[in-house]
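Severity: low
Component: inverse-folding endpoint
Summary: output formatting inconsistent between runs
Steps to reproduce: submit the following structure tokens with default settings.
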């Protein structure tokens, strides 16, 4: 006859699931963020790990975060290490120096 004779409503308390989801998101954020004291060599910048070994800064950060590295050379280091590839005004311009494989 087209009349509604009954209705079913289901309610679920999803508060616990929402708290769990928030806790998991916070844990993920914590994993992606380095924190605490990181023992670093003042000379070579290697970092001491929990086992007492020394690792390059880049390796340590990649192992403990989602960061990835791409390498370049600042103008000061470029001028110091490869002066034959530098102009005197490169440092003043703040240019990032690059060396072509063919130049080496």
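Observed output (run 2 of 3):
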């Amino acid at each position: 006859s087209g009349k509604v004779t009954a209705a079913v409503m289901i309610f679920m308390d999803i508060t616990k699931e929402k708290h769990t989801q928030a806790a998991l998101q916070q844990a993920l954020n914590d994993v992606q963020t380095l924190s605490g004291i990181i023992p670093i060599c003042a000379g070579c910048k290697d970092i001491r790990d929990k086992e007492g070994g020394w690792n390059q800064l880049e390796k340590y950060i990649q192992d403990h975060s989602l960061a990835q590295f791409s390498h370049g050379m600042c103008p000061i280091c470029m001028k110091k290490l490869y002066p034959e590839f530098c102009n005197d005004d490169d440092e003043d311009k703040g240019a990032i120096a690059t060396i072509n494989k063919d130049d080496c």
